[in-house]
From TrEMBL:
Single GO MF descriptor: iron ion binding
Name of protein: Indole-2-monooxygenase-like
Domain of life of the organism encoding this protein: Eukaryota
PANTHER family (UniProt xref): STEROID 21-HYDROXYLASE-RELATED
One Pfam family of this chain: p450
InterPro entries to which the protein is assigned, alphabetical: Cyt_P450, Cyt_P450_E_grp-I, Cyt_P450_sf
């Protein structure tokens, strides 16, 4: 959000407060998901909605005022572009209004903050309860992290070489999906899924929590935290190989609406 200034500090504070206020509204249980007629009474209460509007309008105004000087700058250091600049630059091409841009920003902020943090929290809780898995993961991390280095960034690591870390995260996403019913979907055309007809124009909730625990697909130990199932030869790898897919779980939804994060 730019260089530190008292205005930016104020915005950062407001942003943190809004994330705290909005997360339960977006991620919690809401009767209107199951009874859509209740939506007319409003999910997002008026106050956070107005504050989000003010915050995002302010950010967009700032970016608009810097856009022209930045485009004209010859020194690449002065072309400090971020996501909002990119959205503004494609405004005409995609016919984006200010409301569209605010909606995209809110979507990315709300989708990207609590989800990743919750996955990590659940993973740490699982690791605290399972010394065998924890020790195995520690050994892998220690074998990859350069010796004596206290602060490690992603660039220092060969994440592709950390097969067990990947397996632990996948297992955590399988057993503890942060959005157990994904986001509500809306069927635009009638279709058939596994023999069940889904008519056009209905709200569809996908229970990834149940899919992730179905013993028919995951085996007798479906309720257990066993990252090895995602390693070579494990049941998740065998199942996806036999279906010809590369993905064996869907914690962030498959297909076009999948989480970009
Ligand atoms: C481990 C971390 C994450 C998990 C588990 C997760 C999970 C999800 C889920 C379940 C959905 C709903 C998909 C659907 O029902 O169709 C979603 C959508 C979305 N996520 Fe994530 N997400 C994660 C990280 C992120 C991050 C880091 C960002 C942004 C930087 C992000 C941005 C979004 C957006 C914008 C959507 C809406 C996509 C659309 O409707 O087109 N997510 N995510």
């Amino acid at each position: 959000m730019g260089k530190p200034s008292s205005r930016n500090e104020g915005r950062s504070k407001l942003f943190r407060q809004l994330v705290v206020d909005t997360s339960p509204l977006l991620g919690g249980f809401h009767a209107e998901v199951f009874f859509p007629f209740l939506a007319r009474f409003g999910v997002l209460s008026k106050r956070p909605r107005r504050w989000w509007d003010e915050l995002l309008d302010g950010l967009i105004d700032d970016h608009e005022s810097k856009q022209k000087p930045m485009a004209a700058a010859s020194d690449p250091k002065d072309k400090d572009e971020d996501f909002i600049h990119v959205l503004l630059s494609v405004r005409q091409e995609y016919g984006l209004t200010r409301e569209h841009i605010k909606a995209i920003l809110l979507d990315v902020f709300s989708g990207g903050i609590d989800t990743a943090a919750s996955v990590l929290e659940y993973t740490v809780v699982e690791l605290m309860q399972r010394p065998r898995v924890r020790r195995k993961l520690q050994a892998e991390v220690r074998s990859v992290v350069p010796k004596g280095q206290e602060i490690v960034s992603e660039a220092d690591l060969n994440l592709n070489g950390m097969a067990y870390l990947r397996a632990v995260i996948k297992e955590s996403l399988r057993l503890r999906p942060v959005t157990p019913l994904l986001a509500p979907h809306f069927s635009m055309a009638s279709c058939s899924v596994d023999g069940f007809v889904v008519p056009a124009g209905v709200r569809v909730l996908v229970n990834v929590w149940a899919i992730g625990r179905n013993a028919r697909y995951w085996g007798e130990d479906a309720e257990e935290f066993v990252p090895e199932r995602f390693l070579d030869g494990g049941n998740a790898r065998r199942a996806s190989a036999s279906r010809g897919t590369t993905s064996s779980s869907c914690p962030s939804a498959p297909g076009a609406g999948s989480a970009p994060g």
